[in-house]
Every structure is written in C-alpha cells, then in structure tokens.
Amino acid sequence: MSAAKNIRSFYAGLDTLGVAYQQIKAPYGEGHRLGPSTTLPPKVVRRPLIILGGGYDSTLEEDAREHGYAVLTYDGPGQGSVLRDQGLTFAHAWEKPTTAVVDAFLAGHSRPRYMVLVGMSMGG
C-alpha cells in the first residue's frame, strides 16, 4: 500500500468511526512544515497529553488514542511525509522539531496539565 493511500484510509476510518482529530502544521526551518496530528478524547479529562514521535519508517497515521488520552503525533525531519514530500532529512538536535510541534499545538489549545513525550526508534 502506498503511503498516500495509507494516509487517506486512516483518516477515512477516523471519520467513519466518529473519532475527533485535528491536523495542524508546525513551521520548521526554512520553508518546511512538520505535520502533527492530534486525536482528542470525546470529553476533557485530566490525563496527560501524549506526544509521540515515531521512527524512521513509521507514519504518524499509524498511531491513535485509546483510553481517553489526547495524543499528538508527528513526523519529524527524516521521517514519513516530511521526508517524502519535503525532502527534509534527519536532524540530530531533536529538541528543535519537538519544540516546533509543541508550540504549534499550544497556539490553538490550552496547555495540558501534563505532557508525556514518547520517542520510538529514530524518533527517540
């Protein structure tokens, strides 16, 4: 399955299931945009926001919320659509794209009481 088809199928599934989500773009570097996506719980809860950076060959669309947590996933430099569509290669200073993603989220949402950062593989 192509990456584009995977992404279309993922969001079609969320729409069909009635799962609330929001796609946001975080500015990064010169002309690049990181593609965070949030899945929000149906009601506000006092649980942490889980921020998840995947690995080299992952896509942010393979992750979704469970158990009422809000989840913020993103493709960083050298990952997923950021690499495929923009040619933005891996960066060792991972705090920079992570900061861009968190700032973009907070620009449109209130600050969660807690944020938990999870990195897998090269996203760690």
- What is the CATH superfamily classification? Alpha/Beta hydrolase fold, catalytic domain
- Label the structural class: alpha/beta
Major sheet details? 5 strands, mixed
What is the beta-strand fraction? 15-25%
How would you write the strand order of the largest sheet?
A: 1-4-6-5-7
**Average of per-residue pLDDT values:** 78
CATH-defined fold name: Rossmann fold
The appropriate CATH architecture is 3-Layer(aba) Sandwich
* CATH class assignment: Alpha Beta
Query: How many strand units?
Result: 7
Shape field: globular
**Low-pLDDT regions:** none
Q: Give the helices and strands as they follow along the chain.
A: HEEEEEEHHE
Helix count, per DSSP? 3
Q: Tell me the count of domains.
A: 1
Radius of gyration: 14 Å
Helicity level, as a percent range? 25-40%
Short description:
29% of the residues lie in helices and 22% in strands.
What are its keywords?
124 residues; alpha/beta; Rossmann fold; five-stranded mixed sheet; two-stranded antiparallel ribbon
Can you put this structure into words, describing what you see?
The protein has helices at 3-17, 80-86, 95-108, and strands at 21-23, 26-28, 32-34, 37-39, 49-53, 70-74, 115-119. The protein has 124 residues and is an alpha/beta fold. The chain has one domain: 3-Layer(aba) Sandwich (Rossmann fold), CATH 3.40.50. A 5-stranded mixed β-sheet has the order 1-4-6-5-7, with helices on one face. Strands 2-3 form a two-stranded antiparallel sheet. A hairpin with a 3-residue loop joins strand 2 (26-28) and strand 3 (32-34). The protein is globular, with a radius of gyration of 14 Å. 25% of the residues are buried.
